[in-house]
Amino acid sequence: MLEQQLRAEVEAEGWRNLRQHLAHPVIAPTAPDAPAAPLPPKREWRFGAAMVKGIVRSGVGAAGAYLAFLAAADSGLGEFEIWLAVIAGFIVSLSLTAFGIGRQLVHALARMAAWGLVIALGVGAVYLVSQMAA
Asked: What value does the mean pLDDT of the chain take?
């Protein structure tokens, strides 16, 4: 009986060795690379001309107030209600420029206004120089 158990253990050891030999090689798990630091979000609306942006925001608010005036006057409201609509239109359109796409719109309009101002000053300077030469 002992002899039979020894043969079974030897046979089991042989099968174990054969399975280990034929098994796929064990690849040591590699440590994952440290994640790269995320890039800061791209915020193109961080343009520095705060005064130009303020003027643009006031213009957008005035446009909203004008549209509210047109709507209120067309609907036949009284004078007090028209004033309330104008104030509400100004506040709502001004507050919409503080978030999301309105903020990007203000940025784009401020950039255009700044470049328009530069171009107007350049054209004015050229005009003045050409008039002084005449």
From this structure: 87
